[in-house]
Amino acid sequence: MGPDVNDSDEFVSEPIEPRPGRFDAAAMARGEPGLPADFTWRGRPYTVGRLLATWKTSGLDAGDLYLRRHWYRIQTTTGEQMVLYCERHPRNRGKPKARWWLYTIRR
């Protein structure tokens, strides 16, 4: 997987709802997804306090290597550590906006 994902992380794998207009514009200028500054998960708002680590994963499709996900380990302003990821191509075509996911949480 990526840096510092371990047994104390609770597996979640649920979509989050980024707050519109609150993204990392510098990352977007580089052609990467802009990490949301604020998001909602299970009806509760969260704010990114610190970015702890980033990494990327790739996969093969018809023999070609493609970038699949951008990963982020963050710490919220309320102290939770979370691993978020952005899918380059949403897996559920019926919900194309579900690109951002909470992978794990460490409370």
Summarize the structure.
The protein has 107 residues and is mainly beta. The protein has one helix at residues 25-29, and strands at 10-15, 17-18, 38-41, 44-61, 64-76, 81-87, 100-106.
What report would you give on this structure?
- The chain is mainly β and about 110 residues long.
- It has one domain (about 10-105).
- The chain is about 5% helix and about 55% strand.
- The protein contains 1 helix and 7 strands; from the N terminus they run E-E-H-E-E-E-E-E.
- The chain has one helix at about 25-30, and strands at about 10-15, 15-20, 40, 45-60, 65-75, 80-85, 100-105.
- A 7-stranded antiparallel sheet has the order 1-7-6-5-4-3-2, with no helix packed on it.
- A hairpin with a 4-residue loop joins strand 5 and strand 6.
- The protein starts with 9 loop residues before the first strand and ends with a strand.
- The model has no long low-confidence stretch (mean pLDDT about 85).
